[in-house]
Every structure is written in structure tokens, then in C-alpha cells.
Write a structure and sequence with these properties.
alpha/beta; Rossmann fold; 8-stranded mixed β-sheet; globular
């Protein structure tokens, strides 16, 4: 499995970004969005985010051709056929289970006929997943995300455009960094206890070397095209 540090490079091989009007649902810190707009100065992007703390940070760092809105994928505040392409980067499995189908229908609604949807989801496997599932077991929601994509394709509203698997490097200088970034994110409360921290620490430390801890997180990309 290829190790890809820059997912934007993969995205560029699969879809057309030049001059595109783009939407990212669940944009988080919008790191890929910023990089995309730097490489493609004729593109524009709207980022949707429901985490108020992260959204506030995004609004403090405005960028040309990039705007942010507080909204979830299940209720997108834009007119039909507004966008050429849409992104969901590790965000579909965060949509509430009963709303996943609605979210994909909303994304189809705001895309023009022939528009594309790029969905990148973590695979429930590997040493990094073994760590994370101790405090945040996403087995059910990740499977549900893939099932929702299958239903979307079966509905006839979408066609499969591309599918790729790759590994995303995850690096942490120390356990403290891992705890802050992965166990205590702003967008979720995992109910972290002292006992849980010690259990995760015990599994993390064997991976820690002089240059920190390095993991490879397997990823699954599916690109859908809206039927026009």
C-alpha cells in the first residue's frame, strides 16, 4: 500500500480542480483546502464545519477564495447545482448514523450534473487503529459510512468514478502530543479518564523512538460522480 503524505496530490490525479467551485463538508482546520487554493488560484472553496471552536479559529484566519459556514452535510445552506465538486475528508463517519443518507443526498443536490464527490475514510485496521479504539471505537460508524456510499450508488443518483487505497503517515513527538491531538480533540468528548490514559500510554510507548512515534493509517478513497 502506497504511503501518501500529501493527499492533495492524490486528489489532483482523480478529479478536475482548475477553476472549480468546491465544497468541503466537515472541513476541520481546512489544511488541505488552504493548500488546494494555493496550487489552484482559479478555484474557490466553501468549508462547512459544526465544531464551533474550530469554526471560530478558521474565521480568524481568512484566506482569499475560501469561506466558512456553520453547517453539517445533512443540511447544506446552498442552492441546487452550486458546486463542481465536494470533499469529505475523514468526516462522513462523523455524520450521525440516521443522517448519512440525507447528507449524501444533500451533497448530490448542491452539485451540478456530472459533479464529483471525493470521500476519504480511515480503515478500521492497523496499529494506529488499535490505539484509537481503546477510547474511541469507530468500527460501527466507519462501516456505516461505507454502507451509506453503497446505498447512494445503488440509488442511481451517483456513478462510481474512482477508488483508491493508501496509507497516511501519522507522527507524534511524544505521548503528550498524541493525547492532546487524538484523545482530546475540540470536536469530541471521549470521556477520557486517568485509567484510560494509562492503558493507551502502555500501548503507545513501544512505538516511541528517538524521533517520536510513527504510524501508517490505512485509508480508503471513493470518488462518486453525480448522474446528470
Amino acid at each position: 500500500m502506497d504511503l501518501i503524505d500529501d493527499e492533495l496530490t492524490l486528489l489532483e490525479t482523480l478529479v478536475q480542480l482548475q477553476g472549480a467551485r468546491l465544497l468541503e463538508a466537515g472541513c476541520g482546520a481546512a489544511q488541505l483546502a488552504h493548500a488546494l487554493l494555493q496550487r489552484h488560484p482559479d478555484a474557490e472553496l466553501v468549508g462547512l464545519e459544526v465544531d464551533e471552536r474550530q469554526l471560530a479559529k478558521n474565521l480568524l484566519a481568512p484566506a482569499e477564495r475560501l469561506r466558512f459556514e456553520r453547517a453539517g452535510a445533512q443540511e447544506i445552506p446552498f442552492a441546487d447545482a452550486r458546486f463542481d465538486g465536494a470533499l469529505m475528508l475523514k468526516s462522513l463517519h462523523h455524520v450521525p448514523l440516521p443522517l448519512m443518507d440525507r447528507a449524501l443526498a444533500e451533497l448530490a443536490r448542491v452539485l451540478r450534473p456530472g459533479g464529483w464527490l471525493y470521500v476519504s475514510e480511515p480503515v478500521y485496521a492497523g496499529p494506529f487503529n488499535e490505539l484509537v479504539r481503546l477510547y474511541n471505537d469507530e468500527g460501527e460508524v466507519r462501516a456505516a459510512a461505507q454502507a451509506a456510499l453503497d446505498r447512494a450508488l445503488a440509488s442511481g443518483a451517483w456513478q462510481p468514478l474512482a477508488e483508491r487505497r493508501f496509507a497516511l503517515p501519522r507522527r507524534f513527538a511524544s505521548f503528550d502530543e498524541f493525547e492532546q491531538r487524538s484523545m482530546r480533540p475540540t470536536f469530541a468528548d471521549h470521556g477520557i479518564t486517568d485509567e484510560m490514559v494509562e492503558r493507551v500510554r502502555a500501548l503507545f510507548l513501544p512505538h516511541l523512538g528517538p524521533d517520536g512515534a510513527r504510524f501508517e493509517q490505512p485509508m480508503h478513497v471513493r470518488v462518486l460522480r453525480k448522474v446528470g
